[in-house]
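User: I'm new to structure prediction. If I give you an amino acid sequence, what do you actually give back? Let's try with this one:
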Amino acid sequence: MTLQQLHYVITISETGSLNKAAELLYVSQPSLTSAVRELEKETGILIFYRSGRGVTLTNDGAEFLTYARQVYHQYEILRDKYGTGGNLRKKFGVSTQHYSFAVKSFVEMVKQFHTSEYEFAIRECKTRDVISDVSTLKSEIGILYLSDFNRKVLTKLFHSSEVEFHHLIDCHAYVYLWKGHPLASHPSIRYDELAEYPCLSFEQGDNSSFYFAEEILSTKEYSQTIKACDRATMLNLMVGLNGYTLCSGIICEELNGSDYAAIPLESEETDSGDVMEIGYITRANVMLSRMGEIYIEEIKKYLSRYQ
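Assistant: Good question. You get back a string of structure tokens that encode the predicted 3D arrangement of the chain. For your 307 residues, that looks like this:
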């Protein structure tokens, strides 16, 4: 097993095509195919399914790729720092569900460094991707929430992905809508009052599950639902369709604007898991970098307003 082979399978998985991977790697397709087959023979697993439409990872291949990324990432760090002409730029990444406070805290952290010396990344992505990014060290920190409803499933996934959850704050459910919404002036909102308006939620992909929903109380019945992929689209749908979403109530007006409001959702006796425990995840047994420590300090500083 060689680093070159690991690089090959990582590139193939990212492109989904042997032809495209061969072009990017500047090798012939037969040479690339041969290298992958040798690796599969050595490991005793089938890494890719091959079809006329391209290649996809097998279950064994997906697990193998998790470890391959970690090994190759560490190799890249060594190469960049100690290779010929090496000049390591310190890297720091965050993957998060769609929380404006996570972005605001990232901004405040970046301001404390000279960006010419660092490579920063923040990714607002699906719940499963948040966990995967931290597990594979693509990101150092992930931001997401637990509730009584999803805790058992996500905790099991944390364990299998070798990540740890750290508590930040507990929040009750709020209704997030634009200030021109007919319910925007209410001191609180009942679930039945939302029936005639579309409930907005973030798309979780083909492998979506109630357990991966970013919005609390995802199992309740909603007469109208619309899914979106990014925060800007979500805000536009709030204005254009009088849509709403359920959130933690922690809103950064500096990023989202002042045209929106978070109003408490009245709790019902039948509601279960209506408290969001927001926290961050890190790779197990990996210490935070200085950037990571400052980022968490900025988040805690911001959330202290809502304690």
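You can read the tokens as a compact description of the fold. Here is one thing that stands out. The chain is about 40% helix and 20% strand.
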